[in-house]
Amino acid sequence: MTDHEEMVPVTEQVIGVLGGTGSQGRGIALRLARAGVRVVLGSRDASRAEEAAAALGSGVTGADNAACAAAANIVIVAVPYDGHRETLAALSTELSGKIVVDCVNALGFGKEGPFALDVPDGSACQEAAATLPNSIVIGAFQNLSAEVLLNEEITSVDADVLVLGDDRPSIDRIVELANVIPGVRGIYGGRLRNAGQVESLTANLIAINRRYKTHASIRITGV
Ligand SMILES: NC(=O)c1ccc[n+]([C@@H]2O[C@H](COP(=O)([O-])OP(=O)(O)OC[C@H]3O[C@@H](n4cnc5c(N)ncnc54)[C@H](OP(=O)(O)O)[C@@H]3O)[C@@H](O)[C@H]2O)c1
């Protein structure tokens, strides 16, 4: 993040979303766009992103992932864990010097439900940091439900977003970004090496969702 970018309110930055045609990417994009933030959806196929952007309405455009990464000041990663490392490695030039917000959960799904995968780097976030040494990787939005984000009847999203990272100004910037979504509160959640627990917790939330037929999120008390 440049000193100049630090001075600009987050609402005046362009937010890119890699894998933005999926439900999580579209959900985050929708909420940011409704709050007046300009968003570029990324896809492996530009026309798919343009179509998804048009469906979300004003403030959202679409491009291929590389053009999305190049156009944005802050880039959110919303691809499945399967394509995570490869996607980021291919975009290291476009993402250089930028804040990269990873919301990817390294989860597997088996007969007994969701479970945390063993990631050699420790977590998807740490994998992103290892793959993008010239970017500032922040973990956020891993525990937010796409179903809730995409449901416009829910005007206030009842959730806290844990924001993890190793660079204080960038953490503060993404806390500011999370706070743009009505109802959401961004909270510092620790260093990037603690991202694994946050990603794994989504497996518990999915289990809760299945048992109680809901879309659970987290709230932190005492803050
Ligand atoms: N869904 C949720 O409620 C939720 C909540 C919290 C966090 N997350 C995390 O957010 C991420 C996205 O979730 P999602 O449910 O939106 O996933 P998704 O729909 O399966 O995938 C998102 C997009 O990623 C692209 N993609 C698919 N496979 C890819 C690959 N191998 N390499 C690169 N790009 C690929 C696709 O876009 P194109 O084909 O257009 O390129 C797809 O539309 C996941 O890592 C998930 O853990 C999801």
Q: Which features would summarize this protein structure in a list?
A:
binds NADP nicotinamide-adenine-dinucleotide phosphate; Rossmann fold; alpha/beta; 223 residues; two-stranded antiparallel sheet; 10 helices; 6-stranded parallel sheet; 10 strands
Describe the SSE topology.
Elements: H1 3-7, E1 14-18, H2 23-34, E2 38-43, H3 46-56, E3 60-64, H4 65-71, E4 74-77, H5 84-90, H6 92-95, E5 99-102, E6 107-110, E7 113-116, H7 124-131, E8 136-139, H8 146-150, E9 159-164, H9 168-179, E10 184-190, H10 195-212
Parallel strand pairs: 1-2, 1-4, 2-3, 4-5, 5-8, 9-10
Antiparallel strand pairs: 6-7
Helix pairs in contact: 5-7
The structure holds NADP nicotinamide-adenine-dinucleotide phosphate.
Task: Please give a structural write-up.
- This protein has 223 residues and is an alpha/beta fold.
- It has a single domain, classed as NAD(P)-binding Rossmann-like Domain (Rossmann fold, 3-Layer(aba) Sandwich).
- The chain has 10 helices and 10 strands.
- The chain has a 6-stranded parallel sheet, sandwiched between helices. Strands 6-7 form a two-stranded antiparallel ribbon. A two-stranded parallel ribbon has the order 9-10.
- Strand 9, helix 9 (168-179) and strand 10 (184-190) form a beta-alpha-beta unit.
- Helix 5 runs parallel beside helix 7 (124-131).
- The two termini are 27 Å apart.
- 46% of the residues are buried.
- The mean pLDDT is 96.
- The chain binds NADP nicotinamide-adenine-dinucleotide phosphate.
- NADP nicotinamide-adenine-dinucleotide phosphate binds at residues 19, 21-25, 43-45, 48, 78-83, 87, 103-105, 142, 144-146, 202.
